[in-house]
Amino acid sequence: QVFLVEKAGRRSLFMAGLMGMLISAVAMTVGLVLLSQFAWMSYVSMVAIFLFVIFFEVGPGPIPWFIVAELFSQGPRPAAIAVAGFCNWACNFIVGMCFQYIADLCGPYVFAIFAALLLVFFLFAYFKVPETKGKSFEEIAAVFRRKKLPAKTMTELEDLRCSEQA
């Protein structure tokens, strides 16, 4: 996994995983909708579930942990990882507790909700998530500030002093 992340890049793997999950969710929805007409659609749904899990394990499963660790400097990093972990587990809990009710309400279209959310996540990643592969914290922070780095890269402490004086 680490070799693949270093070779392909975090952002590209994350986005490929999201798009693969999106396509798999659409395939699951189509398979469930057409199951009453075509018995072989159960195989389409099963393959889509396996692909969904594979794409999750390649991208959206591990990559956010890499990105969160690289987006924050040493000081706020533990708090950022704690917030990310809380959000992750809270969302897992909500999906786990509500899925059956949503499935009862939506029927075979339950995975269309996941597909819509995955599309939103993909668009967010495309427009907002930077590639962090091979970049220092200062370079990543400069991407968010939309400024080019000066010839001499400031340390984080110097950067904080400059922002306090301004």
TrEMBL record:
GO CC list: brush border; plasma membrane
Pfam family of the protein (one): Sugar_tr
InterPro entries from the UniProt entry: GLUT, MFS_dom, MFS_sugar_transport-like, MFS_trans_sf, Sugar/inositol_transpt
GO biological process, one term: dehydroascorbic acid transport
Transmembrane segments: 12-34, 40-58, 79-103, 109-127
Cell compartment(s), UniProt: Membrane
Major subcellular site: membrane
The entry's keywords: Membrane, Transmembrane, Transmembrane helix
GO-annotated molecular function: D-glucose transmembrane transporter activity
Domain Major facilitator superfamily (MFS) profile: 1-133
Source domain of life: Eukaryota
Membrane-topology descriptor: Multi-pass membrane protein
Protein name according to UniProt: GTR2 protein
Gene: Slc2a2
